[in-house]
């Protein structure tokens, strides 16, 4: 059996997947997660999950623009890291923040839109993560791609969840909202690039302005 | 040789059982991982050294509030700050405020008063002997601390300047100096920070003008040179770095209610029954504790202050 070769891009993806967790662990051990470490961990895992989700969304347009087709093959791993950090985020919220106190959890989850949105996004991520194995890819065939388009719904849900969790008002552009705005802008751009005319424009941009790419 | 063995017998009880030495190995392994991680953390961005920890009196750390809960550590109090004039990162305020000059500090008292004038904090401290007040601080973000403030009741200063009969409210304003407070250059907020109280709230004995913390001076990141502390209201009412106090006839605008009038009201009394529109206020995390606590009405000061709001609908007047 020949050993599968790990490409440099694959190495970078997995390194990037592990670094935030390692940083959080070290910061936790060194007591560098502020005086409110549970909240800080929630914020860090949430932000990391959204970042990986957006990185996975960036693969296709980046491949179209650069012609580097390997990018599309790393989408799945990036999305899975997004799910892992989201799962960590949800676990910390339930087990540490609310200390598994189901009464308090239900009281707050049911009445608070930002938690409902976050919960919906996470639940929608579960079928995507659990069908990320090659077995399911083959078995679902065309439907696999359809199913995974759910991410076009999930990513705006997460951005909205982010907006609702900070003190600030996006309607009059005030408060602590610069970070959610940045994430909203990137998400919108990545989703817009899925529209056929923009997709075509992206490919034309490459063929017209960039040197041709040698087939891999 | 045989004698040596005899004179130095190893009792069966002295032989380390297998599971003990195995767990010891695990421990050493864990310690190795820990040491390695410590070495790695030193590569992370360094947080700024705690400023003037010497001003914190260690005896105060053992004190409690009247409910028996211990005060938070000086380090937690001075390194977990919501002070958006510096940064929105709570752990970053201390470093950015390290060079902020809190002394000398002056506050101008004006508006509907017979004796308007400007006071220096030094003068205020001389006039009104500082008292220690151990108060709970409940942030609107659902965390809380117990803080040993040093200061004097705002009522004393108000008495001095003699509000006229037309005065109904007190308006407070924070220093506006983007050179020293870098985030004031940002356009996300209608700077300077402003807050307000009804005159009877302002005259309540619990309402404090703080000039110190933990038996020492008031650190810049905690609101020095002069800050307000209203313990039964959410923390954002307790305005920091005050340079103006103005008596008014009409309810003053406040920074947060200007940004989002539907979410931050003028009163902002701590109330577990009235949620922030987007998150619950029923419980809170006391900094330093793992489990959540139920939030108390008026942050546990209902006995002293509930009468101020008799007959008012606290759902409308949030």
Question: How would you describe this structure to a colleague?
Answer:
The complex is a heterodimer of chains A (216) and B (318). Chain A has 216 residues and is mainly alpha-helical. Chain A is built from 11 helices and 2 strands; from the N terminus they run αααααααααββαα. Helix content of chain A is 76%, strand content 2%. Chain A has one domain. The model of chain A has no long low-confidence stretch (mean pLDDT 90). Chain A is globular and about 55 Å long. In chain A, strands 1-2 form a two-stranded antiparallel sheet. With 318 residues, chain B is α+β, with helices and mostly antiparallel strands. Chain B folds into 2 domains: 15-44; 53-309, Alpha-Beta Complex (Sulfite Oxidase, Chain A, domain 2). Helices cover 21% and strands 20% of the residues of chain B. Chain B has helices at residues 2-7, 18-41, 74-78, 93-96, 121-127, 154-161, 199-203, 255-259, 302-305, and strands at residues 106-111, 117-120, 131-138, 143-153, 169-174, 194-198, 208-213, 216-217, 227-229, 242-248, 283-286, 293-294. In chain B, the strands form 2 sheets. In chain B, strands 3, 4, 7, 8, 9, 11 and 12 form a 7-stranded mixed β-sheet that branches. A 5-stranded mixed β-sheet of chain B has the order 2-1-10-5-6. The longest helix of chain B has 24 residues, at 18-41. In chain B, 39% of the residues are buried. Residues 1-10 and 12-51 of chain B have low confidence and may be disordered.
């Amino acid at each position: 059996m020949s050993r599968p070769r790990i490409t440099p891009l694959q190495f970078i993806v997995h390194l990037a997947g592990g670094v935030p967790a390692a940083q959080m662990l070290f910061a936790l051990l060194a007591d560098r997660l502020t005086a409110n470490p549970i909240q800080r961990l929630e914020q860090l895992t949430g932000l990391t999950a959204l970042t990986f989700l957006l990185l996975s969304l960036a693969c296709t347009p980046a491949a179209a623009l650069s012609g580097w087709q390997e990018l599309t093959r790393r989408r799945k791993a990036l999305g899975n890291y997004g799910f892992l950090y989201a799962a960590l985020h949800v676990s910390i919220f339930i087990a540490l923040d609310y200390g598994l106190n189901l009464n308090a959890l239900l009281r707050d989850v049911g009445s608070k839109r930002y938690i409902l949105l976050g919960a919906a996004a996470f639940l929608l991520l579960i079928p995507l993560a659990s069908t990320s194995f090659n077995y399911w890819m083959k078995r679902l065939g065309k439907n696999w791609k359809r199913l995974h388009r759910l991410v076009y719904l999930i990513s705006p849900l997460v951005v909205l969840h982010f907006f609702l969790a900070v003190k600030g008002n996006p309607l009059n552009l005030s408060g602590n909202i610069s970070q959610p705005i940045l994430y909203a802008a990137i998400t919108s751009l990545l989703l817009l690039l899925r529209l056929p005319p923009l997709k075509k424009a992206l490919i034309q941009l490459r063929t017209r302005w960039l040197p041709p790419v040698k087939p891999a | 040789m045989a004698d040596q063995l005899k004179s130095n017998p190893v009792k069966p009880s002295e032989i380390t059982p297998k599971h003990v030495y195995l767990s010891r190995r695990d421990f050493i392994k864990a310690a190795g991982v820990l040491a390695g991680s410590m070495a790695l953390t030193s590569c992370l961005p360094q947080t700024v050294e705690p400023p003037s920890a010497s001003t914190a009196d260690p005896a105060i750390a053992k004190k409690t509030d009247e409910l028996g809960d211990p005060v938070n550590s000086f380090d937690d109090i001075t390194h977990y700050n919501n002070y958006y004039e510096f940064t929105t990162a709570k752990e970053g305020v201390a470093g950015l405020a390290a060079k902020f000059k809190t002394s000398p500090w002056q506050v101008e008292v004006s508006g509907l008063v017979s004796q308007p004038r400007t006071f220096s904090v030094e003068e205020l401290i001389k006039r009104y002997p500082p008292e220690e007040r151990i108060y709970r601080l409940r942030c609107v973000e659902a965390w809380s601390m117990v803080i040993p403030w040093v200061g004097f009741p705002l009522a004393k200063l108000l008495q001095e300047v003699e509000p006229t009969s037309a005065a109904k409210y007190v308006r407070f304003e924070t220093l506006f100096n983007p050179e020293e407070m870098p985030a004031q250059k940002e356009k996300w907020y209608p700077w300077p920070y402003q807050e307000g109280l009804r005159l009877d709230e302002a005259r309540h004995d619990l309402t404090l003008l703080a000039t110190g913390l933990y038996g020492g001076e008031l650190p810049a990141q905690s609101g020095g040179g002069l800050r307000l502390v209203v313990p039964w209201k959410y923390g954002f009412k307790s305005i920091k770095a005050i340079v103006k106090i103005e008596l008014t006839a009409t309810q003053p605008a406040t920074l947060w209610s200007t940004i989002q009038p539907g979410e931050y009201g003028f009163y902002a009394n701590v109330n577990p029954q009235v949620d922030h529109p987007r998150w619950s206020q029923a419980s809170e995390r006391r900094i330093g504790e793992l489990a959540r606590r139920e939030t108390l009405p008026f942050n546990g000061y209902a006995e002293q202050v509930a009468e101020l709001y008799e007959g008012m609908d606290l759902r409308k007047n949030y």
